[in-house]
Design a protein that fits this description.
Blueprint lengths: L1 E5 L10 H4 L6 E2 L2 E2 H11 L4 E6 L3 H8 L8 E6 L6 H9 L8 E5 L2 E3 L14 E6 L11 E3 L2 E3 L7 E8 L14 H10 L3 E5 L4 E3 L3 H11 L3
Helix pairs in contact: 4-5
């Protein structure tokens, strides 16, 4: 199975930093945010990786190259002049997946999720990894009921930015700027999305304060 790392965003929550450094190349410990997830994918058997890029895309491509230094093969889906957001970015990259299921992971998360263990049934269009609600999303996104993702439940969890998707999930979607969550809602209502709770490490590293928090927890002596 191939995987895509979503890395096209402008990283505005990092302020001045991301005007010259794309968010995926911000360092967390000795290596960059995106390298943590490349190595996580490699560890879990994902050797074919697509990365969607837009903001300061040349810096990311030049830094990561073709993936040989990580023991993987990296291809790029370039979005110009503006990023297409999470949904549009995946739709534009569908050609890479040869009409087969693929794994999606956000570039700006830090996790120990066992990606190789994520399953999707023949009848579902997506399988999501959910986590405990962080402080910045205390109301959560969706709930899990008997491994099904459901709406309007009081026990909401947060979508981790990790999941397996089938091309059918994006059927009839055109390449345009759109959010993944907007497509998800319809498929959840039609009971086409499964979900599993990840109990281990997971952190959104979306701004300076969250970066400091993760550094303090895992990388400072």
């Amino acid at each position: 199975m191939k995987a895509i790392i979503l890395a096209a965003g402008k990283g505005k929550r990092f302020g001045e930093i991301t005007k010259i450094t794309p968010k995926p190349l911000i360092k967390l410990g000795d290596i960059t945010l995106i390298e943590h997830n490349i190595l996580l994918l490699k560890k879990n058997g994902f050797n074919e990786i697509i990365i969607n890029v837009s903001h300061l895309s040349d810096l990311i491509i030049d830094f990561l190259g073709n993936g040989s230094k990580y023991g993987v093969n990296i291809s790029y889906s370039v979005e110009k002049p503006e990023p297409l957001e999470t949904g549009g970015g995946i739709i534009k990259a569908l050609q890479f997946f040869e009409n087969k299921p693929f794994l999606v992971i956000n570039a700006d998360i830090y996790t120990d999720c066992k990606l190789s263990k994520i399953k999707i049934s023949d009848s579902d269009f997506a399988s999501l990894i959910m986590v405990t609600n962080p402080q910045h999303n205390i109301k959560g996104d969706f709930s899990i009921l008997k491994n099904r993702i459901v709406l309007n439940n009081k026990d909401n969890m947060t979508y981790s930015g990790i999941g397996i998707f089938k091309p059918e999930f994006f059927k009839d979607c055109s390449v345009k700027k759109c959010k993944l969550i907007d497509i998800l809602i319809g498929h959840i209502k039609n009971d086409k999305v499964s979900g599993y709770f990840h109990k281990g490490i997971w952190h959104d590293v979306g701004d300076v304060e969250k970066l400091k928090e993760v550094k303090n927890l895992f990388f400072d002596n």
